[in-house]
Predict the structure.
Amino acid sequence: MSADLRKITSWQLRTRPLELGRRTLVMGVVNITPDSFSDGGLFLDPQAAVARGLELLDEGADILDLGAESTRPGSRAGGSPTPAVSSEEEQDRLLPVLEGILGARPEAVISVDTYRAATARVALVAGAEIINDVSGFLWDAEIAAVCAEYKCGVVLMHTRGRPEEWSAQTPLAADELMATVRGGLAGSLNAAAEAGIAAESIVLDPGYGFGKKFEENYALLARQDELLSLGRPLLAGVSRKSFLGHTLAALHRGSAAPVSARETAGIAAMVTAILNGASIVRMHAVRTAVEAALIADEVLLHRAGTDAS
């Protein structure tokens, strides 16, 4: 792999290391929610969610990311005056699925998408390896300490503001956007270091769609590799995002393409993210993502002109 893109490194999780950089890892998404933008309600039933997780593993997912609270625009998540769900409800949705998947596949690598310290603790005790915090340690002051205590893997994502604020935010020029994302991720890294979390446990996520206007996501995608200067591997979550639907509007009589019509666009964005340095991609359609990632990895290998091993 190109030395300035993906370095082969070890991501230290709670009980094991995970190699990054030799090939793209695919993180499959299981939303245990009634209102997620992409598949809300489909897997709210624990048995359906467990079955979906096992299906994604069979399709080639390296990691499963379980989320029990939506952070879509309008969800009022992130500690706002009226959170989407309580911590207790989040845990009630999450735990049967987490335990069911690990009961069937004890070797599975499970990530839990939460910004709450209480939920993170319960999930780690139940066997999760990774905490994926969309707020980058901003929305719950205690979550960094929990991650440090359990020495788990951490995904720190950049979010500009809270979901209920996104529609009113001022657009940013590309340079300002990149400075904002870089500065936010650097702040999250500092918070992690202050809590005692080892750098080797951290992966960074630029946060596509999270407080970025439609066109801003393309500027971020085009310049994503600049974030590698922060010294940590990158995870890209572009699957089914609304900015893709906005771009496809010309093919849908001027209306944004529905979620069901964004899969091909999502794969195109995912491949772009890989070619710009992402070591992990977070996707809903895992089998297609695995196949496309294999091709992108070959391009990276031949771009470098030599095997990085």
